[in-house]
From TrEMBL:
Signal is among the record's keywords: yes
Entries under InterPro entries matching the protein: Alkaline_phosphatase_core_sf (IPR017850), GAG_Ulvan_Degrading_Sulfatases (IPR052701), Sulfatase_CS (IPR024607), Sulfatase_N (IPR000917)
UniProt keyword annotations, A-Z: Hydrolase, Signal
Name of the protein in its database record: Arylsulfatase
PTM annotation: The conversion to 3-oxoalanine (also known as C-formylglycine, FGly), of a serine or cysteine residue in prokaryotes and of a cysteine residue in eukaryotes, is critical for catalytic activity.
Keyword Signal: yes
Secretion signal span: 1-20
Pfam families: Sulfatase
Length: 511
């Protein structure tokens, strides 16, 4: 692989291979817990009435809860790409859930349970990503859960992208199953030379679909969490560490062990639902859909509690920043019912939509003695701000605060560090002039500029004032043609053409 370059303001070019690690002192450990398809209103601390989340709520009580934090995209792979690359979805290479399966992408799910190759579109190998940067700064890196940054044996797998230890799903489409046939692992400590498959022998004795599916004993979420805890337990505090825990809960399917967590919710809902499954056997049928979904979030909350307890047990809590968020808004697949739970937090839209409900996500920061406890913050941030923030906290001063040079081809970074906000220095916080998203599947583009929100659907712009219309009910584009023009100009400035992920730009003749 070639030495990756970073193009910064003033056209300075830094070779990653030439970077020296920052001093070890005063650098925090970082854990980022990223769950899957959790809506803005799915946690009690964000107003959820039906689901218990005491550990995440405690994080919010002891840390900072953000109310205007945004995912990188309304679906998984490009949202995670924004974290990894520091680029929004008008610049980044990965802008959608492009799948690689045996033979061709048209092969239907379930036709070949062996899956000779699985995964998503790889990250650009010439663009440096977050774990590579932290690795260059002396961090030990571990990732547990979804990778979604390249198919098996591609140019972008965990072993090639700065990860020391990985356990989970290379392919996010495989991650629709909680009782899969296999997971993937890369472990430098175990002597792995590449990312390999780990067959779940106890699962493959039962069919992947049908009534016997739930007899499979190896539940992926528990397996992944145990590996994450073991990795965390192995940290001795001598070197800083970065743990990226990308749990699949509460993503469909609705499936989990019949333990006390699930039993607590069964019978708790006056009216529960059953769901008969989906065509092509993508998801198995399920009873008690409300109970299953609520239990999955409470199960995730229990994982968070165990992570916090492990940090305290090892005396690492005072020097560890923990972030919690979701990769996009709520889904309605597999029997899930976002309307029942009010999962969008009174926001319009769900997963795959660029309305607020599809991209505004819960976001909590916890770092005792550093992040002010019990604070609620309305700073507007997006996932592409995470990379520069972590660089800032890692003491990497060679990277400027804002990585943008649009006159240059190649790598660029769109994020702004929000470390000042995290550390209670809001007055020193640089702010975005606007935030940007695009998503090809539903042919949508969105721009947020202050309280103005422009949603472009198949080339047609719709304007909303979030200050008075948080649900985005009233399109006022005809009343404010000047604002529409200003925001469409932003789209033409930010969008770079992609052969893989095409969207319709707004007609410049429209008001």
């Amino acid at each position: 692989m070639k030495s990756k370059s970073i193009l910064c303001s003033g056209a300075a070019i830094l070779s990653v291979s030439a970077l020296a690690a920052a001093p070890k002192c005063d650098r925090p450990n970082i854990i980022f817990i990223l769950c899957d398809d959790m809506g803005y209103g799915d946690l009690a601390c964000y107003g959820q009435k039906y689901i218990l989340t005491p550990n995440i709520d405690r994080m919010a009580e002891e840390g900072m809860r953000f109310t205007q934090a945004y995912a990188g995209s309304p679906v998984s792979a490009p949202s995670r790409a924004a974290i990894m690359t520091g680029q929004h979805s008008g610049h980044g290479h990965v802008r959608g859930n492009k799948e690689y399966w045996p033979g061709s992408p048209s092969v239907k799910y379930g036709e070949n349970d062996d899956y000779s190759t699985v995964g998503q579109e790889p990250y650009d190998p010439e663009h440096i990503i977050l774990p590579e940067i932290l690795k260059q700064n002396g961090y030990t890196t571990g990732m547990f859960g979804k990778w979604a940054g390249g198919y098996e044996s591609s140019c972008s797998t965990p072993d090639k992208r700065g990860i020391d230890e990985f356990y989970g799903y290379i392919c996010q489409f495989q991650a629709h199953l909680y009782y899969p046939n296999f997971l993937n692992r890369y472990s430098r400590s175990k002597g792995d030379t590449c990312t390999v498959r780990i067959t779940l022998e106890d699962n493959i004795g039962y069919p992947m679909y049908g009534d016997d599916y739930r007899k499979r004993p190896q539940y992926s979420a528990d397996l992944i969490h145990r590996e994450a805890l073991a990795w965390l337990d192995s940290q001795d505090g001598e070197e800083p560490f970065f743990g990226f825990f990308t749990y699949t809960l509460p993503h469909a399917e609705l499936a989990q062990p019949e333990d006390s967590i699930l039993q607590f919710y069964k019978g708790r809902f006056f009216e529960d639902k059953t769901w008969g499954g989906s065509e092509g056997n993508r998801y198995n049928p399920v009873e008690h859909t409300h109970a299953e979904f609520a239990a999955m979030i409470t199960r995730l909350d229990a994982y968070v509690g165990e992570i916090m307890a492990k940090l305290k047990e090892k005396g690492l809590d005072k020097n560890t920043l923990v972030l919690f968020s979701s990769d996009n808004g709520p889904h309605e697949e597999g029997g899930a019912d976002p309307e029942f739970f009010g999962r969008d937090g009174k926001l319009r839209g769900i997963k795959r939509q660029c309305y607020e409900g599809g991209i505004r996500v819960p976001f909590i920061a916890w770092w005792p003695g550093q992040v002010p406890a019990g604070t609620v913050n309305d700073h507007q941030l997006a996932f592409y701000d995470i990379l520069p923030t972590f660089c800032d906290l890692a003491g990497d001063r060679r990277f400027p605060k804002k990585y943008i040079n649009k006159d240059l081809e190649g790598d660029c970074f769109d994020g702004i560090s929000f470390a000042p906000t995290l550390l209670g220095n809001g007055e020193g916080q640089e702010k975005h002039g606007y935030l940007y998203w695009e998503f090809h599947e539903t042919d949508q583009i969105a721009v947020r500029m202050g309280d103005w929100k422009l949603v472009v659907i198949k080339g047609i712009p719709h304007l909303y004032d979030l200050a008075s219309d948080i649900h985005e009910d009233h399109d006022i584009s005809t009343e404010h043609p000047d604002i529409v023009k200003k925001m469409t100009d932003i789209i033409y400035r930010e969008h770079r053409e992609s052969e893989l992920f095409k969207v319709t730009l707004p007609d410049v003749t429209l008001p």
